[in-house]
Protein backbone atom coordinates (compact mmCIF):
# COMPACT_ATOMS: atom_id res chain seq x y z
CA UNK A 1 0.00 0.00 0.00
CA UNK A 2 1.27 3.49 -0.87
CA UNK A 3 2.14 5.46 2.26
CA UNK A 4 0.42 8.85 2.39
CA UNK A 5 1.49 11.23 5.14
CA UNK A 6 -1.16 13.69 6.23
CA UNK A 7 0.49 16.83 7.57
CA UNK A 8 -0.55 18.42 10.89
CA UNK A 9 -1.98 21.57 9.34
CA UNK A 10 -5.56 22.52 8.49
CA UNK A 11 -6.74 25.64 6.69
CA UNK A 12 -10.27 26.55 7.73
CA UNK A 13 -12.82 29.00 6.44
CA UNK A 14 -12.73 32.42 8.06
CA UNK A 15 -16.25 33.89 8.31
CA UNK A 16 -14.70 37.33 8.89
CA UNK A 17 -13.26 37.50 5.36
CA UNK A 18 -15.32 40.19 3.68
CA UNK A 19 -15.44 42.22 0.50
CA UNK A 20 -17.42 45.31 -0.48
CA UNK A 21 -20.17 44.95 -3.06
CA UNK A 22 -22.59 47.31 -4.77
CA UNK A 23 -26.04 46.98 -3.22
CA UNK A 24 -28.20 46.94 -6.33
CA UNK A 25 -31.92 47.43 -5.73
CA UNK A 26 -32.54 47.61 -9.49
CA UNK A 27 -35.52 49.89 -9.06
CA UNK A 28 -35.72 53.66 -9.03
CA UNK A 29 -38.64 53.39 -6.60
CA UNK A 30 -36.21 51.96 -4.03
CA UNK A 31 -33.35 54.32 -4.89
CA UNK A 32 -35.13 57.66 -5.16
CA UNK A 33 -36.18 58.00 -1.48
CA UNK A 34 -32.55 57.53 -0.41
CA UNK A 35 -31.35 60.16 -2.90
CA UNK A 36 -33.93 62.63 -1.61
CA UNK A 37 -33.07 61.83 2.01
CA UNK A 38 -29.34 62.46 1.62
CA UNK A 39 -29.87 65.57 -0.53
CA UNK A 40 -32.18 67.00 2.15
CA UNK A 41 -29.84 66.57 5.12
CA UNK A 42 -28.54 69.68 6.83
CA UNK A 43 -24.78 70.18 6.91
CA UNK A 44 -24.61 69.12 10.57
CA UNK A 45 -26.82 66.05 10.08
CA UNK A 46 -24.85 65.05 6.98
CA UNK A 47 -21.52 65.25 8.82
CA UNK A 48 -22.89 63.36 11.81
CA UNK A 49 -24.15 60.46 9.67
CA UNK A 50 -20.99 60.46 7.52
CA UNK A 51 -18.75 60.30 10.60
CA UNK A 52 -20.89 57.53 12.10
CA UNK A 53 -20.58 55.31 9.01
CA UNK A 54 -16.81 55.81 8.81
CA UNK A 55 -16.40 55.07 12.51
CA UNK A 56 -18.21 51.77 12.06
CA UNK A 57 -16.57 50.56 8.84
CA UNK A 58 -13.36 52.36 7.92
CA UNK A 59 -11.20 50.07 10.05
CA UNK A 60 -12.68 47.04 8.28
CA UNK A 61 -11.78 48.06 4.70
CA UNK A 62 -8.68 49.97 3.56
CA UNK A 63 -10.46 51.08 0.37
CA UNK A 64 -13.79 51.99 1.93
CA UNK A 65 -14.04 55.54 0.57
CA UNK A 66 -13.07 54.44 -2.93
CA UNK A 67 -15.86 51.85 -2.84
CA UNK A 68 -18.39 54.42 -1.63
CA UNK A 69 -17.39 56.84 -4.39
CA UNK A 70 -17.60 54.14 -7.04
CA UNK A 71 -20.99 52.91 -5.88
CA UNK A 72 -22.43 56.39 -5.67
CA UNK A 73 -21.86 56.66 -9.42
CA UNK A 74 -24.15 53.66 -9.86
CA UNK A 75 -27.10 55.73 -8.66
CA UNK A 76 -26.05 59.33 -9.40
CA UNK A 77 -25.59 60.89 -12.81
CA UNK A 78 -25.30 64.33 -14.39
CA UNK A 79 -26.67 67.15 -12.27
CA UNK A 80 -27.48 64.77 -9.42
CA UNK A 81 -23.79 64.04 -8.95
CA UNK A 82 -22.40 67.54 -9.39
CA UNK A 83 -25.00 69.22 -7.17
CA UNK A 84 -24.02 67.18 -4.13
CA UNK A 85 -21.00 67.78 -1.93
CA UNK A 86 -18.28 65.14 -1.76
CA UNK A 87 -19.46 64.19 1.73
CA UNK A 88 -23.01 63.68 0.44
CA UNK A 89 -21.79 61.58 -2.50
CA UNK A 90 -19.73 59.39 -0.17
CA UNK A 91 -22.71 58.91 2.15
CA UNK A 92 -24.91 58.13 -0.84
CA UNK A 93 -22.43 55.44 -1.84
CA UNK A 94 -22.55 53.99 1.67
CA UNK A 95 -26.27 53.37 1.34
CA UNK A 96 -25.68 51.35 -1.82
CA UNK A 97 -22.74 49.31 -0.55
CA UNK A 98 -22.74 46.18 1.59
CA UNK A 99 -20.31 43.65 3.01
CA UNK A 100 -20.24 40.11 1.66
CA UNK A 101 -18.37 37.38 3.54
CA UNK A 102 -16.81 35.27 0.81
CA UNK A 103 -16.23 32.06 2.80
CA UNK A 104 -18.96 32.16 5.44
CA UNK A 105 -20.38 28.89 4.07
CA UNK A 106 -17.29 26.93 2.99
CA UNK A 107 -13.66 26.94 1.89
CA UNK A 108 -12.54 24.01 -0.24
CA UNK A 109 -11.14 22.54 -3.51
CA UNK A 110 -7.62 24.01 -3.58
CA UNK A 111 -5.15 24.02 -6.45
CA UNK A 112 -1.44 24.69 -5.96
CA UNK A 113 1.42 26.15 -8.05
CA UNK A 114 4.93 27.41 -7.29
CA UNK A 115 4.97 31.12 -6.54
CA UNK A 116 6.45 33.26 -9.37
CA UNK A 117 8.92 34.71 -6.84
CA UNK A 118 11.30 32.16 -5.32
CA UNK A 119 14.23 34.36 -4.23
CA UNK A 120 15.37 35.09 -0.65
CA UNK A 121 14.39 31.62 0.54
CA UNK A 122 16.46 29.22 2.63
CA UNK A 123 17.86 26.13 0.87
CA UNK A 124 15.25 23.54 -0.01
CA UNK A 125 12.33 25.86 0.73
CA UNK A 126 9.62 26.51 -1.86
CA UNK A 127 7.06 29.30 -1.89
CA UNK A 128 3.66 28.32 -3.30
CA UNK A 129 0.25 29.76 -4.06
CA UNK A 130 -3.03 28.03 -3.30
CA UNK A 131 -6.19 28.97 -5.12
CA UNK A 132 -9.26 28.34 -2.98
CA UNK A 133 -12.95 28.00 -3.71
CA UNK A 134 -14.59 30.34 -1.21
CA UNK A 135 -18.37 30.09 -0.83
CA UNK A 136 -20.61 32.57 0.91
CA UNK A 137 -24.25 33.61 1.19
CA UNK A 138 -26.41 32.20 -1.60
CA UNK A 139 -23.82 29.50 -2.38
CA UNK A 140 -21.89 31.98 -4.54
CA UNK A 141 -18.32 30.80 -5.12
CA UNK A 142 -15.34 33.05 -5.73
CA UNK A 143 -11.61 32.40 -6.15
CA UNK A 144 -9.39 33.34 -3.21
CA UNK A 145 -5.65 32.90 -2.72
CA UNK A 146 -3.30 31.76 0.02
CA UNK A 147 0.50 32.05 0.06
CA UNK A 148 2.57 29.42 1.80
CA UNK A 149 5.96 27.71 2.12
CA UNK A 150 7.11 24.13 2.25
CA UNK A 151 10.54 23.06 3.46
CA UNK A 152 12.67 20.21 2.13
CA UNK A 153 11.51 18.11 5.07
CA UNK A 154 7.83 18.71 4.33
CA UNK A 155 7.00 21.34 6.96
CA UNK A 156 4.34 23.77 5.72
CA UNK A 157 3.68 27.30 6.89
CA UNK A 158 0.97 29.65 5.63
CA UNK A 159 1.00 33.43 5.59
CA UNK A 160 -1.78 35.16 7.46
CA UNK A 161 -4.68 36.25 5.26
CA UNK A 162 -6.28 39.60 6.12
CA UNK A 163 -9.95 39.69 7.09
CA UNK A 164 -10.74 42.15 4.29
CA UNK A 165 -10.79 41.17 0.64
CA UNK A 166 -9.82 43.14 -2.45
CA UNK A 167 -11.73 42.51 -5.68
CA UNK A 168 -9.42 44.67 -7.79
CA UNK A 169 -10.28 46.94 -10.71
CA UNK A 170 -12.25 45.39 -13.55
CA UNK A 171 -11.84 46.24 -17.22
CA UNK A 172 -14.82 44.89 -19.16
CA UNK A 173 -14.32 46.51 -22.58
CA UNK A 174 -14.51 43.12 -24.30
CA UNK A 175 -17.29 41.63 -22.18
CA UNK A 176 -20.13 42.25 -24.65
CA UNK A 177 -18.16 41.20 -27.71
CA UNK A 178 -16.19 38.19 -26.47
CA UNK A 179 -17.33 37.57 -22.91
CA UNK A 180 -13.81 38.33 -21.64
CA UNK A 181 -12.67 40.83 -19.04
CA UNK A 182 -9.60 41.56 -16.92
CA UNK A 183 -8.97 42.24 -13.24
CA UNK A 184 -6.07 44.36 -12.00
CA UNK A 185 -4.84 44.43 -8.40
CA UNK A 186 -2.52 46.96 -6.82
CA UNK A 187 0.96 45.59 -6.17
CA UNK A 188 0.65 46.73 -2.56
CA UNK A 189 -2.34 44.49 -1.89
CA UNK A 190 -1.40 41.26 -0.08
CA UNK A 191 -1.85 38.15 -2.19
CA UNK A 192 -4.13 36.69 0.48
CA UNK A 193 -6.51 39.64 0.17
CA UNK A 194 -7.10 39.26 -3.59
CA UNK A 195 -10.41 37.78 -4.66
CA UNK A 196 -11.73 36.99 -8.13
CA UNK A 197 -15.45 37.53 -7.55
CA UNK A 198 -18.14 36.72 -10.15
CA UNK A 199 -18.60 39.59 -12.57
CA UNK A 200 -19.76 38.33 -15.98
CA UNK A 201 -23.42 37.25 -16.35
CA UNK A 202 -22.36 33.66 -17.16
CA UNK A 203 -20.70 33.34 -13.73
CA UNK A 204 -23.07 35.39 -11.60
CA UNK A 205 -23.77 32.43 -9.30
CA UNK A 206 -20.20 31.27 -8.99
CA UNK A 207 -16.64 30.78 -10.20
CA UNK A 208 -16.04 27.17 -9.23
CA UNK A 209 -13.01 24.88 -8.84
CA UNK A 210 -10.10 26.76 -10.40
CA UNK A 211 -7.26 24.47 -11.55
CA UNK A 212 -4.07 26.54 -11.86
CA UNK A 213 -0.93 25.34 -13.63
CA UNK A 214 2.30 27.02 -14.70
CA UNK A 215 2.49 26.70 -18.49
CA UNK A 216 6.15 26.55 -19.39
CA UNK A 217 6.29 27.12 -23.15
CA UNK A 218 5.26 29.89 -25.52
CA UNK A 219 2.57 31.25 -23.22
CA UNK A 220 5.01 31.43 -20.30
CA UNK A 221 2.33 32.17 -17.77
CA UNK A 222 -0.07 30.68 -15.25
CA UNK A 223 -3.26 29.22 -16.66
CA UNK A 224 -6.39 28.02 -14.93
CA UNK A 225 -9.73 26.67 -15.97
CA UNK A 226 -12.80 27.18 -13.81
CA UNK A 227 -16.51 26.50 -14.07
CA UNK A 228 -18.74 29.53 -14.58
CA UNK A 229 -22.24 29.06 -13.17
CA UNK A 230 -25.19 31.40 -13.69
CA UNK A 231 -27.73 29.50 -11.58
CA UNK A 232 -28.99 27.41 -14.50
CA UNK A 233 -26.09 26.47 -16.77
CA UNK A 234 -22.35 25.91 -16.50
CA UNK A 235 -19.55 26.84 -18.88
CA UNK A 236 -15.77 26.40 -18.67
CA UNK A 237 -13.61 29.53 -18.66
CA UNK A 238 -9.89 30.28 -18.77
CA UNK A 239 -7.80 32.53 -16.51
CA UNK A 240 -4.36 33.77 -17.55
CA UNK A 241 -1.92 35.64 -15.32
CA UNK A 242 1.82 36.24 -15.22
CA UNK A 243 2.08 37.52 -11.67
CA UNK A 244 -1.25 37.10 -9.82
CA UNK A 245 -1.72 40.86 -10.09
CA UNK A 246 -3.44 41.07 -13.47
CA UNK A 247 -5.85 38.37 -14.60
CA UNK A 248 -7.49 37.94 -18.00
CA UNK A 249 -10.67 35.86 -18.01
CA UNK A 250 -12.13 34.37 -21.19
CA UNK A 251 -14.88 31.80 -21.89
CA UNK A 252 -13.64 28.66 -23.66
CA UNK A 253 -15.17 27.88 -27.04
CA UNK A 254 -15.80 24.73 -29.09
CA UNK A 255 -17.96 21.62 -28.86
CA UNK A 256 -15.55 20.02 -26.36
CA UNK A 257 -15.80 23.01 -24.01
CA UNK A 258 -18.61 21.47 -22.00
CA UNK A 259 -19.16 19.94 -18.57
CA UNK A 260 -16.95 20.62 -15.52
CA UNK A 261 -13.44 19.91 -14.34
CA UNK A 262 -10.93 20.63 -17.11
CA UNK A 263 -7.18 20.72 -16.46
CA UNK A 264 -4.51 21.95 -18.85
CA UNK A 265 -1.26 20.09 -19.42
CA UNK A 266 1.76 22.24 -18.40
CA UNK A 267 3.27 22.20 -21.90
CA UNK A 268 2.42 21.45 -25.50
CA UNK A 269 2.80 17.92 -26.84
CA UNK A 270 3.72 17.54 -30.53
CA UNK A 271 2.81 21.19 -31.05
CA UNK A 272 -0.72 20.96 -29.56
CA UNK A 273 -2.36 21.97 -26.32
CA UNK A 274 -3.90 19.18 -24.24
CA UNK A 275 -6.48 19.14 -21.48
CA UNK A 276 -8.07 16.46 -19.37
CA UNK A 277 -11.85 16.77 -19.14
CA UNK A 278 -15.06 14.86 -18.51
CA UNK A 279 -17.50 15.31 -21.38
CA UNK A 280 -20.70 13.39 -20.69
CA UNK A 281 -20.22 13.58 -16.93
CA UNK A 282 -18.87 10.09 -16.20
CA UNK A 283 -15.68 9.32 -18.13
CA UNK A 284 -12.21 10.82 -18.00
CA UNK A 285 -11.53 12.41 -21.40
CA UNK A 286 -8.55 13.87 -23.26
CA UNK A 287 -8.92 17.09 -25.26
CA UNK A 288 -6.56 18.42 -27.92
CA UNK A 289 -6.38 21.77 -29.72
CA UNK A 290 -4.09 24.11 -31.64
CA UNK A 291 -5.89 27.07 -30.07
CA UNK A 292 -5.81 27.55 -26.31
CA UNK A 293 -9.28 29.13 -26.35
CA UNK A 294 -11.10 26.80 -28.77
CA UNK A 295 -11.58 23.07 -28.08
CA UNK A 296 -13.39 20.75 -30.50
CA UNK A 297 -11.55 17.42 -30.20
CA UNK A 298 -11.87 14.93 -27.35
CA UNK A 299 -11.79 11.20 -26.76
CA UNK A 300 -12.49 8.91 -23.82
CA UNK A 301 -9.30 8.41 -21.83
CA UNK A 302 -10.45 6.22 -18.94
CA UNK A 303 -13.79 4.70 -17.95
CA UNK A 304 -14.99 3.65 -14.49
CA UNK A 305 -14.40 -0.07 -13.93
CA UNK A 306 -14.24 -0.59 -10.18
CA UNK A 307 -16.89 -0.13 -7.53
CA UNK A 308 -15.27 2.85 -5.84
CA UNK A 309 -15.27 4.79 -9.15
CA UNK A 310 -18.43 3.42 -10.78
CA UNK A 311 -20.59 6.55 -10.56
CA UNK A 312 -18.09 8.88 -12.21
CA UNK A 313 -14.46 9.87 -12.40
CA UNK A 314 -12.55 13.01 -13.30
CA UNK A 315 -9.24 14.79 -12.90
CA UNK A 316 -7.97 16.61 -9.83
CA UNK A 317 -5.85 19.18 -11.62
CA UNK A 318 -3.09 19.34 -14.19
CA UNK A 319 -0.71 16.38 -14.58
CA UNK A 320 2.93 16.45 -13.49
CA UNK A 321 5.63 15.48 -15.99
CA UNK A 322 7.93 12.64 -14.88
CA UNK A 323 10.49 10.53 -16.71
CA UNK A 324 8.01 7.63 -16.77
CA UNK A 325 5.01 9.63 -18.01
CA UNK A 326 2.37 12.20 -17.12
CA UNK A 327 1.28 11.66 -13.52
CA UNK A 328 -2.41 12.51 -13.24
CA UNK A 329 -4.29 12.85 -9.96
CA UNK A 330 -7.92 11.78 -10.33
CA UNK A 331 -11.09 11.65 -8.28
CA UNK A 332 -13.71 8.92 -8.32
CA UNK A 333 -17.21 8.55 -6.91
CA UNK A 334 -18.70 5.34 -5.55
CA UNK A 335 -21.59 4.25 -3.29
CA UNK A 336 -23.21 6.96 -1.16
CA UNK A 337 -21.56 9.60 -3.38
CA UNK A 338 -18.25 9.03 -1.62
CA UNK A 339 -15.34 10.85 -3.28
CA UNK A 340 -11.83 9.37 -3.21
CA UNK A 341 -8.51 10.18 -4.93
CA UNK A 342 -6.49 7.97 -7.24
CA UNK A 343 -3.63 8.22 -9.77
CA UNK A 344 -3.22 7.47 -13.47
CA UNK A 345 -0.04 7.46 -15.57
CA UNK A 346 -0.16 8.64 -19.20
CA UNK A 347 2.40 8.24 -21.98
CA UNK A 348 4.62 11.32 -22.42
CA UNK A 349 4.40 11.50 -26.21
CA UNK A 350 0.88 10.09 -26.56
CA UNK A 351 -1.16 11.03 -23.49
CA UNK A 352 -4.17 9.17 -24.91
CA UNK A 353 -2.35 5.96 -23.91
CA UNK A 354 -2.89 5.00 -20.27
CA UNK A 355 0.19 3.22 -18.88
CA UNK A 356 -1.24 2.44 -15.48
CA UNK A 357 -4.01 3.19 -12.99
CA UNK A 358 -4.06 2.41 -9.26
CA UNK A 359 -6.20 -0.55 -8.25
CA UNK A 360 -7.23 1.12 -4.99
CA UNK A 361 -7.64 4.78 -4.02
CA UNK A 362 -4.55 6.62 -2.84
CA UNK A 363 -6.62 8.72 -0.42
CA UNK A 364 -10.07 8.24 1.12
CA UNK A 365 -11.92 10.46 3.58
CA UNK A 366 -10.93 9.43 7.10
CA UNK A 367 -13.56 9.39 9.83
CA UNK A 368 -12.71 12.91 11.03
CA UNK A 369 -12.82 14.18 7.42
CA UNK A 370 -16.30 12.85 6.59
CA UNK A 371 -18.48 15.56 8.16
CA UNK A 372 -19.02 18.96 6.62
CA UNK A 373 -20.81 21.11 4.06
CA UNK A 374 -20.86 18.14 1.64
CA UNK A 375 -20.11 14.94 3.64
CA UNK A 376 -17.95 11.97 2.58
CA UNK A 377 -15.99 13.98 0.00
CA UNK A 378 -12.22 14.17 -0.39
CA UNK A 379 -11.35 16.39 -3.34
CA UNK A 380 -8.68 18.65 -4.75
CA UNK A 381 -7.90 20.70 -7.86
CA UNK A 382 -4.12 20.27 -7.99
CA UNK A 383 -0.84 18.90 -6.70
CA UNK A 384 2.81 20.00 -6.78
CA UNK A 385 6.13 18.14 -7.03
CA UNK A 386 8.48 18.94 -4.12
CA UNK A 387 11.91 17.34 -3.67
CA UNK A 388 10.93 13.86 -4.88
CA UNK A 389 7.51 14.00 -3.24
CA UNK A 390 4.05 15.07 -4.28
CA UNK A 391 2.28 17.67 -2.13
CA UNK A 392 -1.50 17.35 -2.25
CA UNK A 393 -3.68 20.02 -0.68
CA UNK A 394 -7.18 18.60 -0.35
CA UNK A 395 -10.65 19.55 0.79
CA UNK A 396 -12.35 17.63 3.60
CA UNK A 397 -16.09 17.40 2.89
CA UNK A 398 -16.03 20.93 1.41
CA UNK A 399 -15.40 22.41 4.87
CA UNK A 400 -11.63 22.66 5.43
CA UNK A 401 -8.33 22.06 3.67
CA UNK A 402 -5.65 19.58 4.69
CA UNK A 403 -2.25 18.70 3.23
CA UNK A 404 -0.69 15.35 2.39
CA UNK A 405 2.71 14.16 1.12
CA UNK A 406 3.47 11.01 -0.84
CA UNK A 407 6.64 9.69 -2.47
CA UNK A 408 6.66 10.21 -6.24
CA UNK A 409 8.85 7.11 -6.69
CA UNK A 410 6.43 4.99 -4.70
CA UNK A 411 3.47 6.16 -6.79
CA UNK A 412 5.26 5.53 -10.09
CA UNK A 413 6.37 2.06 -8.99
CA UNK A 414 2.77 1.15 -8.18
CA UNK A 415 1.46 2.58 -11.46
CA UNK A 416 4.06 0.84 -13.60
CA UNK A 417 3.19 -2.48 -12.01
CA UNK A 418 -0.59 -2.02 -12.21
CA UNK A 419 -2.76 -4.15 -14.47
CA UNK A 420 -4.68 -1.54 -16.39
Secondary structure layout:
Elements: E1 4-12, E2 18-22, H1 28-39, H2 43-57, H3 64-72, H4 79-82, H5 86-95, E3 97-101, E4 106-114, E5 126-135, E6 141-150, E7 156-158, E8 169-171, H6 175-178, E9 181-184, E10 195-196, E11 206-215, E12 221-229, E13 234-241, E14 246-251, E15 263-264, E16 273-277, E17 284-289, E18 297-302, E19 312-315, E20 320-322, E21 325-334, E22 338-346, E23 354-357, E24 378-379, E25 384-386, E26 389-396, E27 400-407, H7 408-416
Antiparallel strand pairs: 1-27, 2-3, 4-5, 5-6, 6-7, 6-10, 8-9, 9-14, 11-12, 12-13, 13-14, 15-16, 16-17, 17-18, 19-21, 20-21, 21-22, 22-23, 24-26, 25-26, 26-27
What does this protein structure show overall?
The protein is α+β, with helices and mostly antiparallel strands. The protein is built from 7 helices and 27 strands. It has helices spanning 28-39, 43-57, 64-72, 79-82, 86-95, 175-178, 408-416; strands at 4-12, 18-22, 97-101, 106-114, 126-135, 141-150, 156-158, 169-171, 181-184, 195-196, 206-215, 221-229, 234-241, 246-251, 263-264, 273-277, 284-289, 297-302, 312-315, 320-322, 325-334, 338-346, 354-357, 378-379, 384-386, 389-396, 400-407. Strands 8-9-14-13-12-11 form a 6-stranded antiparallel sheet, with no helix packed on it. Strands 1, 24, 25, 26 and 27 form a 5-stranded antiparallel sheet that branches. Strands 4, 5, 6, 7 and 10 form a 5-stranded antiparallel sheet that branches. The longest helix is centred in the first third of the chain and has 15 residues, at 43-57. The model has no long low-confidence stretch (mean pLDDT 95).
